[in-house]
Amino acid sequence: MSSLTPRRLPIVLTIVALLAAGGLADRAGRPAPAGAREQSPFAMPVAAPTSALSSTWYCAGGTSQLKGFADGWLVLANSEDRTVHVVVTFIPNDPSIRPRHVPVDVKPLSQLTLHDFDYLQAQFVAATVEVRGGGVVAEHFVLGPGGASVAPCASSASDRWYFADGGTTRDATELLALFNPFPEDAIVDLSFTTEAGGIEPEALQALVVPGRGLSVVNVGDHVVRRRAVSVSIVARSGRLVADRIQSYSGSAGRRGLALVLGTPSPGTLWYFPEGLVTKGVVERYQLYNPSDQEAKVELALGLEKGAAEPFDLTVPGGGRITVLANAEGRIPAEVPHSATVRSVNGVGVVVERSIDATKPSPRRGLGSTLGARQSARRWLFAIGLATDTVDEWLVLQNPGTHAATVSVTALADGQQLAIDGLQDVRLAPGRRMAFRLGDHLRRDPLPLLVTSTEPVVAERDLYTVGGLGMSTVMGVPLR
């Protein structure tokens, strides 16, 4: 086992360099309707405030073996100007292996990275991050032959989780990591909705996720050869956290690796700051309605140039639909856009955006993310770097009716480093902007703090320069 010393960081960041970021110039759009903002504190991960006595993060998915296909890493960022004590507990999917408790201190305004394999070896490993106080954000990433992918850890457990995207075709592997951090067993039912209808595998009804345990389900063992798979995980008893690890081998065209934290509820409003239709890039919006009521949905685009009529969509109860942006004439090629998905009749849906990038695009890989469920004045990204091998982009969307003034700072080993050119930037209502961090500074690592005078939505996109690796993910709001 290696110790927690700064020498780990360059190694980790070299590995993270398999990622890269995509984003483009300012994008136009239209403000969300008044009163449309969904601000549930449990709808997406949210960092505890400074005043909190304690807070906890739950990170469900990742392998922890030599040359694993989705090797797991944990990254913590401390937005406070004081050292924060943290206890990380690594929990294996094998009950014969003891969990490992690792106490660490996260220095003020800095980042700390832990490699799961350095502390516990098992087929799969989850982690609980117990923080003495607030202001700390936990993200994790997986790394393998298909590239690398980042996702936030969960700030709360839930008795249900949903995913809109997924696939079990011959070239695909879809895994669900079900993590129960509590002493009592959780009993869950899993159901799936595909392009061919609904499936409730008998083996996945009343499935036991042991207390303080991790269970991993290979969806392809139960839902065979489906290109579009949405998931509902509902607990009869107990609570848990769910991640999805999706990979495509490249044998049928798609290639990449994506780690996604599920959502604990359907939502009436979803934001996606980034979007682009271009050669070699395929953009899909997956909409899943787990309820028994029909959902009337509007998908509105904010174009950099011009305007596009919104899509009026109907998602049947218990059904799913896919919007392939490349096949829609109203979405012009080479014009960056944002997207806002809103339920018109109040029936919640689950929405994911996936982006596949292959030649002739300079990007390579798979990026998949659920949309942001709220806007906020402060956002934190634990993972990041801007180097010759990694392109990091920050993409902001202002869904409100008032202009926002935005500033971006780096957490730089004990100080907030104001990034030149990204201070007091005006973001007009209904518009979006994208910033290539490498145009403003070169830094490794580069955790980011975004502050705004008005609520905005922040997304970070990472792309490997000249190689395979792509990650698109929303930030974590700071209260």
Number of strands: 35
Q: Under CATH, the topology of the domain at 8-18 and 45-152 is which?
A: Hypothetical Protein Tm1070, Chain: A
Strand portion: over 45%
Provide the low-confidence segments as ranges: 1-37
Task: Please identify, by name, the CATH architecture of the domain at 8-18 and 45-152.
Answer: Sandwich
CATH level-four homologous superfamily name of the domain at 8-18 and 45-152? TM1070-like
Overall spatial form: globular
How far apart the termini lie comes to 36 Å
Largest sheet, in brief, is: 9 strands, antiparallel
Number of helices: 1
Which structural class is indicated by helix and strand composition?
mainly beta
The CATH top-level class label of the domain at 8-18 and 45-152: Mainly Beta
Which value, in Å, is the CA radius of gyration?
Answer: 20 Å
Percent range of helical residues? under 10%
- Multimeric state of these chains? single chain
Mean pLDDT: 92
